[in-house]
Amino acid sequence: MIIGNITTMSGFLLIGFSDIHELQILHAFLFLVMYLLSLAGNLIIIIITTLDQHLQSPMYYFLKHLSLLDLSFISVTVPQSVNNALMDDGYISHAQCILQVFFFTSLAWAELAILTVMSYDRYAAICFPLHYEVIMHPCKCKWAVTAVWLSASISGILFTIATFSVTFCRTTVIHQFFCDVPQLIKLSCSNDYLRVVGVAAFMSLMAFICFTSIVLSYIHIFSTVLRIPSAGGRAKTFSTCLPHLFVVSFFVSTAIFEFLKPTSDSPTVFDLMIFVFYTVIPPTLNPIIYSLRNEVMKEAFRNLVLGGKFTRK
Question: Which spans are transmembrane here (predicted)?
Fold first, then answer.
């Protein structure tokens, strides 16, 4: 891969996992496998939660939107990375980079927002079962999802405008497999990147509020579950909460680690793997995690695979 006089390029050069062609092919193969698994798993969840009448509760309505977000989130970075690795060319145009930043930041925020809404749904279902249908009325659920997508768009617009108002006056090499905002900021040699810091600080505050809401929801959930006298009742309740808790923990912990880790001019393999755990693994694992302990989901999946009939209205 020849870098040459990159300052004359209208776009950016993505430096992925390795300059060795064989390792690039391996990276492309692994990313492609994970992408196809994510594509299949999330599409299956979207289909069965749309067609099966047993999966029309708010929990599955939010899960359907989480799967749509996962599918979109992984599609922002992985196909471009696979193409670059196969072509042995890390070039990405300025317009493509802008779109990547917008959709990546939008969908990352939307993931956290929908996980927060899902934790509130579990809190309402377990702590206020008699009022659940009123609290999580279908109209309120639609408004909640609308708020998730709207806030995601606002987040993406703020990050994109702030990031690309920066003057890039260094060699336009990005040490990442996609257009990562911290790596883009390192290309600035003036103080105009402070706008991005301001946006990041505001979104970090909002993310902290979401995370606090999730933690408080689960504190109330666990205190309620432990008072259930029936062991079977506790197990059934945990079966709907533990997958969500695992997804939240994995997504938030990797995001926090990535946020706190200093940005390096020459990232190590460990740094790049953290990005993979943050951007690629969650959309691939979420369909498996949510389906593994859910008998209704498994039955709906069997009906889809074996050609059985879904229950309808």
Answer: 25-48, 98-120, 141-162, 196-219, 240-260, 272-292
Residue with tokens 């768009």: 153
For residues 45 and 70, is the Cβ–Cβ distance under 8 A? no
Ranges of residues in the chain with a pLDDT under 70 are 1-9, 16-19, 170-171, 190-192, 233, 240, 258-271, 292-293, 307-313
- Read off the pLDDT of residues 67-87 as tens digits, 9 standing for 90 and up: 999 999 999 989 988 888 888
Distances (CA, A) of 124 to 144, 223, 283: 14, 13, 26
Give the number of other CB atoms < 10 A from CB of residue 254. 18
Q: In the beta sheet, which residues pair with residue 91?
A: 13
pLDDT for residue 260: 65
Q: For the domain bounded by 11-306, which CATH number is listed?
A: 1.20.1070.10
Nearest to 74 by CA among 84, 86, 66: 66
7 touches 77 (CB < 8 A): no
Q: Which of 278, 313, 289 is nearest to 74 (CA)?
A: 278
From CA 110, how far away is CA 89, in angstroms rounded?
31
Beta bridge partners of residue 168, listed in sequence order: 188
Give yes or no for a contact between 92 and 14, defined as CB atoms under 8 angstroms apart: yes
pLDDT digits (tens, 9 = 90+) for 132-174: 999 999 999 999 999 999 999 999 999 999 888 887 776 688 8
3-class secondary structure for 216-242? Answer: HHHHHHHHHHCCCCCHHHHHHHHHHHH
